[in-house]
């Protein structure tokens, strides 16, 4: 069984250790964060401070874009885009990693406190009862301050979350 996490697409490209999990993982990605990959790849602004790291991350972003543009994966994504909140069929990267793309719909529920991508991440995590995975401390702090009822893990705690993390059934008992 795959452990599911809601995550931005760029996080998967930026943090290589996410691609070598100890157990099977399903990364649930809002579609809008895939569109963000193109902007990051083609933009002039550096993603990382170190030029070598920046080049590596942009190459990883390009690889992820190519994966999503694969004809079979593209077909699965396009099918999900036909209705709000529809999930794609699993996009298999390898025997341990799959992606599920969600046609998220940004609503005003958290729009005043969070940017559009953050709002979509929150709503996806809430709707699917799936933990969120992020490296953004400010985002984590805002989630706590706003008392948003989602489970959130820091990227640095990824292996713990995969091996020992809280499953959706555990959240219901809380």
- Note the run of SSEs as H and E: EHEHHHEEHEHEHH
Distance between the termini: 22 Å
Number of helices: 8
- Shape designation: globular
The overall strand count is 6
- The gyration radius over C-alpha positions equals 16 Å
Question: Structural class of the helix and strand makeup?
Answer: alpha/beta
Low-confidence stretches: 168-174
pLDDT averaged over residues: 88
Describe the structure.
- The protein is built from 8 helices and 6 strands; from the N terminus they run E-H-E-H-H-H-E-E-H-E-H-E-H-H.
- The protein has a 4-stranded mixed beta sheet. It has a two-stranded parallel ribbon with strand order 5-6.
- Helix 2 packs across helix 3 (51-69).
- The longest helix is centred in the middle third of the chain and has 19 residues, at 51-69.
- 47% of the residues lie in helices and 14% in strands.
- Strand 3 and strand 4 form a beta hairpin.
Offer a concise description of the structure.
By secondary structure, the protein is of the alpha/beta class. Helices cover about 45% and strands about 15% of the residues.
């Amino acid at each position: 069984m795959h452990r599911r996490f809601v995550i931005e697409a760029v996080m998967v490209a930026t943090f290589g250790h996410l691609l070598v999990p100890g157990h099977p993982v399903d990364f649930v990605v809002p579609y809008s964060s895939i569109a963000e990959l193109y902007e990051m790849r083609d933009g002039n602004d550096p993603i990382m401070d170190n030029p070598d790291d920046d080049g590596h991350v942009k190459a990883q972003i390009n690889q992820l874009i190519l994966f999503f543009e694969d004809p079979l994966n593209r077909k699965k994504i396009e099918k999900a885009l036909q209705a709000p909140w529809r999930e794609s069929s699993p996009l298999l990267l390898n025997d341990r990693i799959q992606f599920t793309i969600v046609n998220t719909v940004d609503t005003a529920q958290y729009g005043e406190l969070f940017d559009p991508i953050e709002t979509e991440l929150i709503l996806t995590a809430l709707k699917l009862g799936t933990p969120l995975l992020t490296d953004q401390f400010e985002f984590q702090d805002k989630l706590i301050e706003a008392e948003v009822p989602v489970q959130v893990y820091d990227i640095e705690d990824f292996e713990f979350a995969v091996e020992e993390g809280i499953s959706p059934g555990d959240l219901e008992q809380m």
